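QA checklist item 7 of 12: single-chain prediction sanity check.
[x] sequence parsed
[x] length recorded as 421
[x] structure emitted
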Amino acid sequence: MSGKESVDNQYIGSCDDKTLDVVNPYSHAVVGGTASATSADCLTAIDAAHAAFKTWEHSLLQQREDVLVKAAGILSLNSMKEETATPIDRSFSQSFIGDSSKLGDLLGDEKTASDRVPGVEVVIQRRAMGVMQVVFVFLFGIALWNASIVLILRAIAVPILCENTVVLKSSELSPQSQFIVAELLQEAGLPAGFLNLISISREDSPTLSAEIIAHPSVRRINFTGSDRVGRIIASEAAKYLKPCVFELGGTAPAIVNSAAKGIVSGALLYPGQVCMSSSQVLVQQGVSDNLICELCKSLKAGDPYTDPTATLSTLFSQSSAENILGIFHEAIGEGAKVLIGDITRDGSVIQPHVFTDEREAFGPELSITAVDTIDEAVELANMSDYTLTSSLWTSDLGSAEKLVPRIRAGKSNAILYLDVS
């Protein structure tokens, strides 16, 4: 819904009619827009969420489950349509079409939480784990651009199931895909005011986000993004002793003691613009990195809709590409060695790069660090302030069972390969 925001199940413009442009990452043409919320618009969204809470405060769990289940069905059906599965404001490759068919399952899985143990008690159990501790009136959520549909579903499904209303600040870079979620929830029967979607310009975001956090009706904050912004949000919330749910940083070290082809996919999927990309690879001495380099050479970045030979999509914007090249140059100045790549870009397109001993850049790059022992690899993997996920690539089940518990990460995966040739 170009130039609009979704508040109280109505599509409205901003008070001053200001809009934000949405730019296609391939052609760099303006392809749409969204309303740029003002302070008054934010207050309208908060008031709608507060009023909506009273209307469904004592609703039955089954009613809320039914909305999620119906929305999951609608999303799964629509994911078969390319125009829905691949919004023009997202810079993901064609492979996301297949992944989007699973999004309905993600939404429906939140409903199944109440099926695993009969009765409402299971919902209370989920709250005790920190997702929702009590019914809060409503939550302020902040969505990102890189996996916009997934992140908005994850941010709102459990709060809605637990009887909360939500004001969601969508990414100004990918509002169209997030409006899809608002529309399907409305179609599924979500009452007016339960989800209120606004977009805020980058210039206004610090001030208006602080105003929303300070509002007495806002009881909890949910944010996925960088630790830098997370610290700012946490500082604002701490002024009012408001709890936050954060997923910060994005380090995802991969320990390899047997070369595995999947490591390239784990690092360069959506070309590295995912917080769980395995861009830091810790490899034992004696395990050749030639396989990883050869696999990266076979990949090509470009517009998958106009270039059928492109296996990776472009970056989200030209500014993203400029920032990543800056990180590359800085790493080289600090001693990193370039194994693959020419440190150039074509607009928002950067071809895959492989470095030695380089930090994550949130782009199409792999950093390979050689270690003498697995113990050294575990030590390096645990040196990050925020390790979101980790993976161990091995053909030895015994090693996996011993090593995975030693890695301090939000989630650790063991990928077993019996034949790594």
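[x] summary fact logged: The first helix runs from residue 39 to 56.
[ ] second reviewer sign-off
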